[in-house]
Structure of Haloacid dehalogenase:
Amino acid sequence: MNKPTETLAKAQGPSPRNAWVFDLDDTLMSNVHDYAFPILNACKLVIDTLGDAAPHVSAIVALEQEIDSRRVAEINPATNQPYGYSMERFPTSLVEVYREICRRVGKSPIRSVESELLYTGLKAFDSSRYRKNVYSDTFPVLDFLEKKGDLILLLTKGDKRVQGRKLSVLDAGKRFCSVRVVESKKTPEVFTEMAKGLESYRLFSVGNDYEKDIVPALGVGYRGVWIPVETWEVIGRLDEIRARVDQSRCIELRLLRELVERYDEITGMVA
Ligand SMILES: [Mg+2]
């Protein structure tokens, strides 16, 4: 899927000055509620199955959040690799929630309930929703940058089986001059690789997650454009994160369309 950025940079001629590395989920398309209905349905199934032995629904949701967050770094025994952001983490985390509750109340998990939880969780990856998940600002902003002669690149983290379907909705292979999916995290090295051949460009990383999309990029010469969304990974922490933002090299936007409205201000930032 990747095209050599050097070749593309040359093909664009000498005029482009800026290269934008976009995040995908919750930056160009909404992802934050894709998991909501599977989680709610899983809660219902656990309560239907365990009856009065089930904890309060808010405790089930909190346990799901706790197990999902912990599992990102845990080793998947089937692969000997961390679960990361793979489909092996969610929806298997829903099964683990059920098993943990069963352990706590001294009941044996039922295999058919576990299968149903997996099936329910897989609906988070229903690709029929992806087209309407694309933000209304996304294509106008990308078109604006292209008209400016800028380069647009895409760097997303997640399961390639899932991200691939989202990328096809965006027609990403044609629209972006480079597309990369990482399954664990966006490291400074990944940002450096994305910028290969673009040494004469001003580099920008645009994303909703300051810690994961912006910080690793600032360390290797990018400017940051942070458009915060309160996802499951930053619930209740946005103010604390905002206090740590390096405002000399990162600008915070409320909406993606402000990238157009404040283009001169953003591109005038010093790296
Ligand atoms: Mg994101």
